[in-house]
Specification:
Number of strands: 15
Number of helices: 18
Radius of gyration: 25 Å
Strand order of the largest sheet: 7-4-3-8-9-10
CATH class of the largest domain: Alpha Beta
Strand content: 5-15%
Distance between the termini: 35 Å
């Protein structure tokens, strides 16, 4: 890859020979859409070989979600990148037999079916570890594999509510809102990737070489992000409430409108930062006020501080406010949409975009993934493949299935 104006431009004609920290890690992905597949996308970015099982016919439902280009979702270009797509009907006995053979050659199976589904198909961990004792199985579901709600449908939208996130999102005088993203799925996917790597390390270094089950519930992944809300309720009886653009118990940390109608986010909650902020706003009296020297005092006088900052920002343009705060070394910045992001010089300098081509040659920008590793960075080797693009490679090379048998499997609807 070569940098192009702070952006990576990718020649997709050949796989890239870059050091891959997860090279040799073999993952079999079952399931579809978001939480589980996001985890394997992240691992594939760093070199893991991910074989994705998709149902014959339409494949992963994500292929048809949101913005489409010639019938295929642009989201799929990102979520499916670096994965090998094979078609396999897991509801058919022959398909289940093939899945067991694939699992016997894998380090891990990553699935996000409704709990009990793999057991019904004879593909649960107890069944698969008979042929592969070292197999790790990562199971992502709405409610987890146990408990009274485990068998219920579990979408991330509901899990965000049950996990506590929705209750604290929005303004106090309005109903809770959601971010226009699938945060619960992504958060669960991050936990799933961490769980897989943790189990792998244990297998290789701390255990007896045997695999284990990693149980990720989406609502629990969301709950894991709730900071100190639980002990505050338990000890102090305090409920974290919706605060709009503010942050409970940390002052000042808010969004303010400027004279030109633009909004600026200001994080002035550090003790020394607060003093610099108020001086930049022309309020030396508040900067030197002993009541406001520490955060607990500022919390008690939050309205007075916010009113002073609103008065200041509303009488200046966004650029004027930002220049003053940058000079005072106060954390501040705008609220970007995607158009703003792709023009931002810092995003470009950090190479957060890459330009590649879809199957028909259309250029497309994709987000580079993080974290950034200095010696063994991740890379896009190919974008989301056509459905079943790797059938012959996987079934013939990995499992040794002959061409005649493959053709019969196609006729039978197994692949």
């Amino acid at each position: 890859m070569r940098p192009l104006g702070g952006e990576e431009s990718i020649d997709m004609s050949e796989p890239k020979s870059r050091p891959s920290p997860l090279s040799g890690l073999k993952i079999l992905e079952m399931g579809q859409l978001l939480a589980g597949p996001f985890a394997s996308t992240l691992l594939a970015w760093f070199g893991a070989e991910v074989i994705k099982i998709e149902p014959p016919g339409k494949g992963d439902a994500l292929r048809a979600w949101r913005g489409l280009h010639k019938g295929t979702s642009l989201w799929w270009a990102t979520m499916g990148r670096n994965k090998k797509s094979i078609t396999l009907n897991l509801r058919e006995p022959r398909g289940q037999e093939i899945a067991r053979s694939l699992a016997a050659n894998a380090d891990a199976v990553l699935e996000n079916f409704k709990p009990g589904t793999l057991e019904k198909w004879g593909l649960d961990h107890d069944a698969l570890k008979a042929d592969n004792p070292g197999l790790i199985m990562v199971r992502v579901s709405g409610w987890g594999q146990t408990g009274p709600r485990s068998a219920e449908p579990g979408y991330a939208s509901v899990a965000e509510g049950v996990g506590g996130l929705r209750y604290v999102t929005g303004y106090p005088d309005r109903p809770p809102v959601r971010s226009n993203l699938s945060l619960g799925d992504t958060i669960a996917g991050l936990h799933a990737a961490l769980g897989l790597l943790t189990a792998l390390y244990h297998r290789e270094h701390g255990g007896d070489g045997r695999g284990q089950v990693v149980d990720v519930a989406i609502y629990e992944a969301v709950f894991n992000m709730m900071e100190s809300a639980l002990p505050e309720f338990d000890v102090l009886g305090e409920l974290r409430e919706r605060q709009g653009s503010k942050l409970s118990g940390i002052v000042p940390s808010n969004t303010y409108e400027c004279r030109d109608g633009k909004f600026i986010i200001i994080g002035g909650n550090g003790d020394s930062i607060f003093k610099r902020l108020m001086r930049a706003a022309g309020r030396d009296d508040l900067a030197s006020d002993p009541r406001l020297e520490q955060n607990d005092g500022r919390v008690q006088h939050e309205e007075e501080i916010d009113r002073a900052l609103r008065d200041w920002t509303s009488s200046h343009t966004f650029s004027e406010v930002l220049v003053s705060l940058e000079k005072a070394q106060v954390p501040a910045g705008p609220i970007y949409n995607m158009e703003d992001i792709v023009e931002d010089e810092h995003f470009k300098a950090r190479e957060m975009f890459e330009t590649t081509r879809l199957a028909d040659g259309t250029e497309v920008k994709l987000p580079n993934m993080i974290p950034k590793l200095t010696d063994s960075p991740g890379a896009t080797r190919w974008v989301g493949p056509e459905l079943g693009a790797h059938n012959d490679e996987v079934y013939q090379d990995l499992l040794g299935i002959g061409s005649d048998e493959l053709e019969q499997l196609r006729r039978d609807g197994v692949i």
